[in-house]
Predict the structure.
Amino acid sequence: MRKMYIIAAAWLSLLLLAACSDGVSNGSGGNSADSSLAAAPAAGNRAIHEPDRTSGPGSSDPVYSGPVYKVVIDPGHGGEDPGATSVSGRFEKEFNLSVSQAIAEKLADDPQLQIELTRTGDAFISTHELYRPEFANDLPADLFISIHGNTYEDASASGTESFYYHDESLVFAETIHKHVILATGLKDRGVKAANFFVLRETEMPSVLLELGYLTNPGDEAKMWTNEFQEAVASSIADGIKEYLQLD
Ligand SMILES: [Zn+2]
């Protein structure tokens, strides 16, 4: 009887081992969103891997087989192009990247979304003017969001505004702006049409956000805080989900 028990226990162990290794090999697909975030912005390195989101038997990952929306987050400027210089002497490119990475982090685990950044470091991608829209068009992306901080010669200029170009982008811009304005808590400068090349040349709904004025002491003080950037990133994530009608 004792021998039977030992044999049964050994079999059970083997079965468990088999199930675990199966889960490891199949579960890796669930993290593909993370690897996509690491995509280098260097030209010619834009190979996009269709995310493998299938889970085999034995895996604890829920099976997701619905549509995967590709969203490009574009941190404005970078490298030799610093963008605006803030009141305290910091560069807009740094603010843009920080907020963009926070957005990507908030959405990385959502199997319904594939998030791509046009740059993940301080890369100078403005050498080729159309790099950003071409990056999005080549994917092809479903949505494009360019992140910026504003600048003006008059330091009293303040607030948050959102820009679109094609009429097809208006509803998307309004949806994102509605969420973002609550998060920044700054003056609402509205949703406006503007002929920015990243908006004009992108072939999907696109919006350019000027989250606040880095040249305004009040706006700037808030904009560098983790609290502000996290709230803004969450609001943009919510806006994306609302527009795409995701949970
Ligand atoms: Zn800018």
Observations:
- The beta strands are 69-75, 113-117, 143-150, 160-164, 188-193, 206-213.
- The domain at 2-244 is CATH 3.40.630.40 (Aminopeptidase).
- Residues 76-77, 83, 92, 148 surround zinc ion (CB under 6 Å).
